[in-house]
Design brief:
By secondary structure, this protein is mainly beta. The chain contains two helices and ten strands.
């Protein structure tokens, strides 16, 4: 199956915390980072997710925000440090590729996350190849698929 979602990150479920309707699922990415997904309890059951399950975390590029330093006082659970490898700008938007620190995420995307942000944000943050950044992803914006 082909998807328009740019970020497909393999990992292994390390815990599932179930609530009445939703669950939080912690995933150790193949590069060693930890990612949290907030998904429905129905999805957890449909996918048969338990500790040790192999999964792919899926994140739309438009749901990846970038910061140029550590961010405190923020509810966003997923904070992945990395280095900008490429910036492609258009009239209003930009595509920023980030190699995440801690090892390769997957050969399929070259160990990178893609963030779609405004051209203005690229300029304001001074982003260019080699810039250090932190990729920020809300747990509610992470989807999971069986590996």
């Amino acid at each position: 199956m082909s998807l328009s979602i740019r970020n497909h990150i393999p990992g292994t479920v390390t815990s599932v915390t179930a609530g009445e309707v939703m669950a939080t699922v912690k995933v150790r990415l193949d590069g060693g980072q930890e990612l949290t997904a907030a998904i429905t309890l129905e999805a957890v059951k449909d996918l048969g997710l338990t500790e040790g399950s192999a999964v792919r975390a899926l994140v739309k590029a438009t749901e990846v925000a970038l910061a140029t330093g550590a961010v405190d006082g923020l509810s966003i659970r997923n904070r992945l440090p990395g280095t900008v490898t490429d910036v492609a700008t258009g009239g209003a938007m930009a595509s920023v590729k980030v190699t995440v620190v801690g090892g390769e995420l997957t050969a399929a995307v070259g160990g990178e996350l893609t963030a779609a942000i405004t051209k203005e944000a690229v300029t304001d943050l001074g982003l260019a190849a080699g810039s250090s950044v932190v990729a920020l992803i809300k747990s509610t914006e992470v989807s999971l698929a069986g590996a």
